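Re: Re: ligand-bound prediction request (bumping)

Still looking for help on this. To restate: I need the protein modeled with acetoacetyl-coenzyme A bound, output as structure tokens. Inputs repeated here so nobody has to scroll up.
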Amino acid sequence: MQSIGIDAMAIAVPEGYLELRDLAEARGVPPAKYVDGLGVVRMAVAAPHEDPVALAADAVRRVLDLGEIDPSTIGLCIVGTETAVDHSKPIAAYLHRLAGLPDRCRVYEAKHACFGGTAGLMTAVDWIASGSARGRKALVVCSDIARYGVKSAGEPTQGAGAVAMIISTNPRLVALEPGVTGSFARDVDDFWRPLYSKDAVVDGKHSVQCYLDALIGAYEAYVEAAREAGIDPDAVVRRCYHVPYGKMARKAHRALLAHRGHTEDEADARFADDVGSSLHFSAEIGNVYTGSLYLALASMLEAEARVLEGERIGLFSYGSGCCAEMFAGRVQQGAAAIVEKLALGAPLASRRALTIPEYEAIRAADAEIDRRPPSEPPVASVAARRVAFTGVEAERRLYHG
Ligand code: CAA
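Reply:
Sorry for the wait, this slipped through. Here it is.
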């Protein structure tokens, strides 16, 4: 039987980031609350020219280039996002030009809070498994700017970034298990973003409980699906979770292991081995909403693909509102060499620390853009190699690059 899964991946991040110790100091909060209490270290801050289209395009160009993928082989492009730039035109339509995708390509956007990327991934896998792909590959992109109110409780759990993935037969990185997934859905008001607002509204403590309830619901559904397929649901050597902030992954691991009869101490003792390597990137970037689970997977592969070759990894995706899914994949033999070529962590090397006044000026500029779309480029200089949002002319969004 042909295998289907993630053949290549790449990430993109804004050029600026904030040290969360600096933010804690500015907000009069003990830094230990952010670093130890929430498990966050730095958060990426997107400048106005680094909108979700620009971030997505950067990630897609990297995955096509470093993954040595011919764009003409792509037949489906789905962008998962909860920070779309338009109520109608999808980010995928902008990517079609910016990434040089072929005319014979289905392009669209998927929305369900942080679950949109997983919805795209599942559709891509099923599209290939059904035969509709006819040998073509799918491009699944997750791109978001996680934004809460300045000085709100959610402020230290912001971030921004994109993850692009090529889905194909005989994948070089991770083979997934088509049809063997566990879904869970419920109508809850834990986190949402009204049409009139760029900042999310969140019932923080309730959102944590909704996440944990959905985790157990998806796990139970996954156990049933895996057993029907003759797969041991717990035969995984690592787990990647949706990571709104590092501590949430620890809470998730505790809850899952408690559900399986383990104590909190046992879960904590296993956490570094089971989950730890998936958190390196998110500690640098923060929450990237739809891309969060896949950023965790990229982080884990970057850190230890060689030891994971041939092993199964458990994956858990959560989108507020809510919809969740648990599934698993096997890291392919030879994945470590591909991971090296893809230079997954390289975009983190060329960033700049922002001061608190710079960060607050970016947030103020964002609010102004909402009131009055700029007809001039929102930045004085745009780095030549990057795709950048440069303003609105005759109601049309313009991109450099
Ligand atoms: N030293 C060490 N730890 C400290 C501390 C100190 N000085 N002060 C507080 N802490 C600890 C607290 O004990 C607490 O730990 P536990 O959670 O283990 O109990 C932790 O720091 C956080 O403290 P609070 O609970 O007081 O934090 P808060 O009320 O300021 O808000 C939050 C935390 C609710 C997560 C808030 O940041 C928030 O609303 N974030 C956005 C929503 C979110 O990320 N929800 C996650 C689930 S929903 C989801 O996953 C979808 C998505 O992507 C948004």
